[in-house]
TrEMBL record:
Organism: Ferruginibacter yonginensis
Protein name: PadR family transcriptional regulator
Signal peptide boundaries: none
Pfam families documented for this protein: PadR (PF03551)
Residue span, Transcription regulator PadR N-terminal domain: 16-88
UniProt cross-references to Gene3D superfamilies, sorted A to Z: Winged helix-like DNA-binding domain superfamily/Winged helix DNA-binding domain
Transmembrane segments: none
InterPro entries from the UniProt entry: Metal_resp_DNA-bind_regulator, Tscrpt_reg_PadR_N, WH-like_DNA-bd_sf, WH_DNA-bd_sf
SUPFAM superfamilies in UniProt: Winged helix' DNA-binding domain
Length: 112
C-alpha cells in the first residue's frame, strides 16, 4: 500500500461523512463509485474497507441506515444523523487545519 492509499484509508470516515453530507442518502456501491469518479480512478474504495467503516459510523451514532426496495431488490441506504452532521463539520475543520499545518511545514527552508 502506497502512502496516498494509507492516508486515504486513515481519512475514510471523514470522506464518507463528507459524501453523505452532500446527499440525502447513499448506498454502498454509490459511495464507491463517487470516490472513484472524484479521484479520476486514482483511489478505489473497496467493499472490504467501506462496510466496516459504515458499520462503525452507524454504531457510533453518526450514520443511520434504512432498507428500501429498488427494482424488487433490497438496498441499504446510509444517511447522516444529527450528530453525524456536527461531526462532519468538526472532521472537515480538522482536515483543513492539518493541511494548513503541512503546507507551513513543507514550505520551510532548512537553515544552514
Amino acid at each position: 500500500m502506497n502512502t496516498a492509499q494509507q492516508l486515504f484509508k486513515g481519512s475514510l470516515s471523514t470522506i464518507i461523512l463528507k459524501l453523505l453530507s452532500e446527499q440525502d442518502k447513499m448506498y454502498g456501491y454509490e459511495i464507491t463509485k463517487k470516490v472513484k469518479t472524484l479521484t479520476n480512478d486514482e483511489m478505489q474504495l473497496t467493499e472490504g474497507a467501506l462496510y466496516p467503516a459504515l458499520h462503525k459510523l452507524e454504531a457510533d451514532g453518526l450514520v443511520t441506515a434504512s432498507i428500501e426496495m429498488v427494482d424488487n431488490r433490497k438496498r441499504k441506504y446510509y444517511a447522516l444523523s444529527k450528530n453525524g452532521k456536527k461531526e462532519t463539520q468538526y472532521k472537515l475543520q480538522e482536515v483543513h487545519q492539518f493541511i494548513a499545518q503541512m503546507q507551513q511545514l513543507l514550505q520551510l527552508k532548512p537553515q544552514m
